[in-house]
Design goal:
- The relative contact order is 0.09.
- With 566 residues, the chain is an alpha/beta fold.
- Helices cover 41% and strands 20% of the residues.
- A hairpin with a 3-residue loop joins strand 14 and strand 15.
- The chain has a five-stranded parallel sheet, sandwiched between helices. It has a five-stranded mixed sheet with strand order 7-8-9-11-10, sandwiched between helices.
- The chain contains 19 helices and 18 strands.
Length: 566
């Protein structure tokens, strides 16, 4: 699909020039920094060299003092403590961090990951019943709990105190927990609101160490786990998340915990990982445990004490990921075929598909895959008991949660946010829901939102692409949500030579002016552009700049994201 190119507004000349002079960088680099809110030398220093000393005081988070006092009391009195986390990457890394660190201080510590299929998301009544039977008197929830009003009330009535560590938006009614740590509470003064669930747990442990007078460095051995949570939960790589990710990646790439080392080796991932490889390499594997099995397997991996044990568990996790990928590709193919054979399927503004035997653990992934083919709000449903349950995914700029809300009378329950949601309905309501949802979206979505976006940070002359420019650019890493790798645009260009690779990709040598330098480029999935490239017609490109290491020869190349004739 051709994309709409949207250029970031170019910042004013004066602040760019001032910053370029202050830190001695090219004006294009300075423009990128000003776009990111970096305006002076001190801000640039903090951006390029994030320091753990700049982490905020954990006690500025609402209820932190209460949470720490209760945790210290439980440890001192040798109470039975349960660490309760969700089954996704953020949840299992949160449990790994909290359980792995506290076990050196607490004698009676257990962890609990709910079963995705038997219990569903969040703090379940089944989990609380298990805690009651196990003699638990304090539960610490991680990456969940902020909306678990009924379950936490059940725990309270059983005499169990609950400390909630969550980062999701609170509902109108808060649970009756002993303490709630969630920076998104409207009355929480904590200055950074975008922590991952694992990040909130990290702040609790920071406060715990401060209260006990123990050096913070004791906690830093878990920064690789925290970095994985930040990357895979797609929270913005700004503020504290940038600091934690920067140092977490260093830890992961130099001295990872043995569980992470094992899964990297078993999966054949590169020895040096970036945020994108955590998102697309490590994350799906850790998620696979909970998608096609039980999430506790991922925690067992991350807590493994020796490489032999970790490798054995990593092999199990990899097997589950292979099965998950099989389900993913098979169900996606079935879904695409349904769209193409269904009456009005191609002309519709939405995709709502149901098949009773689709695996519940991958329908969210399948919804995202369908959007890659047909860019429109998508809901994939499967049978769960005598109900239909589904995952919804949206396109940029459209609030799918509001569209689902307009169909609420057809649903048993639903929840989520603007771009992703979950829902459950009676089987007999599937067709009425499909029709209503299609009508709601058709009435409310602007036509332009049905075309995918290619965001461009800056126009760039190809003569700027050199080793010095790239080296400074690369110091803006880690790149990810909220701090994406800069995308440049250049036009007009022509291909001096090109070849098609594996029938689907193109390799080019591109020149902007007849006398300008030629730059090597790769375009994955862009072989469809071959006809006008072959005719030597001018075109424009949107791209990132990267290093290419081929048979030991390292050079710069453009990674073309979008290519359009002029």
């Amino acid at each position: 699909m051709d994309k709409r190119w949207i250029f970031q507004p170019e910042p004013a000349h004066e602040p760019v020039t001032s910053l370029a002079n202050a830190i001695h960088v090219d004006h294009c680099i300075a423009s990128l920094l000003v776009q990111k809110g970096v305006n002076d030398f001190e801000q640039a220093k903090n951006y390029f060299r994030p320091s753990l000393d700049d982490l905020h005081d954990p006690f500025s988070m609402k209820d932190m003092d209460k949470a720490v006092r209760r945790l210290l009391q439980a440890i001192e009195k040798q109470e039975h403590i349960l660490i309760y986390g969700d089954y996704d990457v953020d949840g299992v890394t949160s449990v790994t961090l909290m359980y792995g660190f506290l076990k050196q201080y607490a004698d009676h510590l257990q962890f609990y990951i709910p079963d995705r299929y038997k219990e569903g998301y969040g703090v379940s009544t089944q989990g609380i019943s298990w805690a009651i039977e196990s003699g638990i008197s304090l539960i610490i929830t991680l990456d969940c709990g902020i909306k678990a009003v009924d379950s936490i009330q059940y725990a309270r009535e059983a005499g169990i105190d609950v400390i909630v560590c969550d980062h999701h938006e609170p509902g109108q009614v808060l649970p009756a927990a002993y303490a709630i740590l969630d920076p998104k509470q409207t009355d929480c003064p904590y200055p950074f609101k975008e922590l991952s669930g694992c990040g909130v747990g990290f702040k609790l442990l920071q406060a715990f160490l401060l209260e006990k007078g123990i050096p913070q460095e004791d906690l830093y051995s878990y920064l690789d786990v925290v970095a994985i949570s930040i990357a895979c939960d797609l929270v913005p790589l700004t503020g504290e998340n940038r600091i934690l990710s920067y140092h977490g990646l260093k830890k992961l790439n130099t001295n990872p915990t043995v569980g992470i080392q094992a899964i990297i080796e078993v999966a054949g991932l590169p020895s040096k990982l970036e945020i994108s490889q955590l998102v697309f390499g490590l994350g799906p594997r850790l998620n696979a445990a909970g998608r096609v099995g039980h999430g506790s397997l991922a925690v067992d991996l991350l807590l493994a004490g020796d490489l032999a044990t970790a490798t054995q568990i990593a092999q199990q996790v990899e097997q589950k990921n292979v099965f998950r990928r099989h389900l993913d590709s098979t169900i996606t193919a079935e879904a695409i075929q349904l769209i193409e054979t269904k009456a009005f399927g191609l002309a519709a503004r939405t995709t709502v598909l149901f098949k009773e035997d689709w695996h519940k653990g991958v329908i969210g992934i399948v919804a995202s895959r369908c959007i890659e083919h047909y860019y429109r709000p998508t809901i994939i449903l499967t049978a769960s008991g005598n109900k239909a349950t589904g995952s919804a995914r949206s396109v940029a700029g459209y609030n799918i949660y509001e569209a689902i809300t307009a169909c609420a009378d057809l649903l048993d329950q639903y929840g989520g946010h603007a771009y992703a949601a979950g829902l459950t309905m009676p089987l007999e309501n599937i067709v009425p829901f499909q029709e209503r949802f299609e009508q709601v979206v058709a009435d409310t979505i602007p036509q332009e939102l049905l075309t995918p976006i290619q965001k461009i940070d800056l126009p760039l002359l190809l003569e700027k692409v050199n080793a010095k420019f790239y080296n400074v650019l690369n110091q803006m890493a880690p790149f990810g949500n909220g701090n994406m790798k800069p995308v440049f645009a250049t036009e007009p260009v022509i291909a001096k030579r090109f070849s098609v690779l594996k029938g689907n990709h193109i390799k080019l040598s591109i020149q902007q002016e007849d006398s300008g330098p030629c730059v090597e480029a790769i375009g994955f999935g862009l072989a469809k552009c071959e006809p006008f490239i072959r005719d030597h017609r001018p075109f424009r490109i949107a791209y990132t700049i990267e290093k290419n290491n081929y048979r030991g020869e390292v050079n710069l190349q453009l990674n073309i994201k979008e290519l359009q004739p002029i």
